[in-house]
């Protein structure tokens, strides 16, 4: 990012302050600035782009740009437009608190470049992304040697800082980051001895199983768990046992010698700041509850991207952020929406639906996940048991987010009692 965008103020006033300059924050900032809104975009890192900067593999941008890009290439497309825009970008700047008084908000941030910043605004977009679950979250028995990394940290060490985390690696969890790292570690000359997954099916995308494990002959131990970690100073080996009837079958335990363990066991939306501001968190997603306009329970505070729910594809992060920005614009121009919204509830086989409400003044795109693995499934939207819309899904699995758009005409023709609940289910 060129220095010309750096601003030299300690206190200023904006229409919108966006916290986080990853894919979500960048797309929201650009959308709003193109509509003439005064925007501040803040990130603690020294570059815009967020997690994209360390994802040097391809597979980004197929929906958004109709071409296959690496993470930094995807980010660059937004960064070039941001540099030409009037958005004030504060890098190396961490938001530490937000103060609210009625509709007025003050964002406090610490910056290596500007000192303490105090930015006044009426609206805030939360776009802080997510963080990785670690060993403490799953409680693996054994010793506490060095050599245990989360997969995303290892990715940053290799792709940005230029370090090799280890030579002989076992990966715990078959999430996408772990799969990508199995291939990355193989490419840098390390030996990946296997990926151990507690579930009977992989957690990552099918294309990553094929391109990151199968193409390199890396074993995937489905329905297995690492039961113990050994090593005094550095990791020396792990014990692995198959699972039968929810228990580790210790009679079939085997060991793999290794010096490094990578954990790819899920992501947690980064909402410590949100909670301090009073934003209500949905335990099914780990992100805020939002209405049909992506506004949280706190008036004037919106959320999008991985801070709201963990996405598998960045294209849908950008799409969601642009939609959110459109609603933020309406809020700034027209004030709080008086339009009656109804709840969207989760029916059979659905883990969560975002947003948590629908509106009849706009097309509604719902983002959801299921906990079943199935071919030829049917997604159904109902109101009081009456079917409003269905969609056939060729294949569904927990790792793949489902997108489902319901046009406002469909809702308006459905004769819905104002403010009544809708339900989304999958069979
Ligand atoms: C390893 C990995 C591989 C992936 N592979 C693919 C792929 O192949 N294809 C694909 O389409 N998608 C992929 N994705 C998904 C996609 O990249 C992400 O979903 C998307 O980039 C997330 O964007 P975001 O803006 O929500 O969050 P992030 O990119 O995480 O951005 C959040 C930003 O907020 C900043 N921040 C947080 N808190 C604060 C604070 N208090 N103050 C200031 N700044 C703060 C952070 O520094 C960060 O820059 C992958 C993701 C990962 C992690």
Question: What does this protein look like?
Answer:
The protein starts with 10 loop residues before the first strand and ends with a strand. The chain folds into 3 domains: 10-132 and 266-337, FAD/NAD(P)-binding domain (3-Layer(bba) Sandwich), CATH 3.50.50; 134-265, FAD/NAD(P)-binding domain (3-Layer(bba) Sandwich); 339-427, Immunoglobulin-like. It has helices spanning 23-34, 71-84, 135-138, 151-161, 176-187, 206-213, 272-277, 314-334, 408-413, and strands spanning 11-19, 39-42, 58-60, 69-70, 88-90, 93-101, 104-111, 115-126, 130-132, 148-150, 168-172, 191-197, 220-222, 224-230, 237-244, 247-248, 254-257, 260-263, 267-269, 301-303, 342-346, 350-354, 357-358, 364-370, 374-383, 386-396, 402-406, 422-426. Helices cover 22% and strands 36% of the residues. The strands form 7 sheets. Strands 1, 2, 5, 6, 7, 8 and 20 form a 7-stranded mixed β-sheet that branches. The protein is globular. It is of the alpha/beta class and 427 residues long. Helix 1 packs parallel to helix 8. Residues 1-6 have low confidence and may be disordered. Strand 14 and strand 15 (237-244) form a beta hairpin. Residues 19-25, 42-45, 50-52, 55, 57, 59-60, 94-95, 127-129, 152, 155, 176-177, 180, 270, 273, 305-306, 311, 313-315, 317 line the site of flavin-adenine dinucleotide.
Which class best fits the helix and strand makeup?
A: alpha/beta
CATH superfamily membership of the largest domain, which one? FAD/NAD(P)-binding domain
Strand content bin: 35-45%
Largest sheet: 7 strands, mixed
Question: For the CA atoms, what is the radius of gyration?
Answer: 23 Å
Query: Approximately how much helix is present in the residues?
Result: 10-25%
Overall pLDDT = 93
What is the CATH-assigned architecture of the largest domain? 3-Layer(bba) Sandwich
Number of helices: 9
Question: Would you count the extended β strands for me?
Answer: 28
How many individual domains?
3
- CATH class descriptor of the largest domain: Alpha Beta
Catalogue the ligands: flavin-adenine dinucleotide
Task: List low-confidence stretches.
Answer: 1-6
The outline comes out as: globular
Give the termini separation. Answer: 48 Å
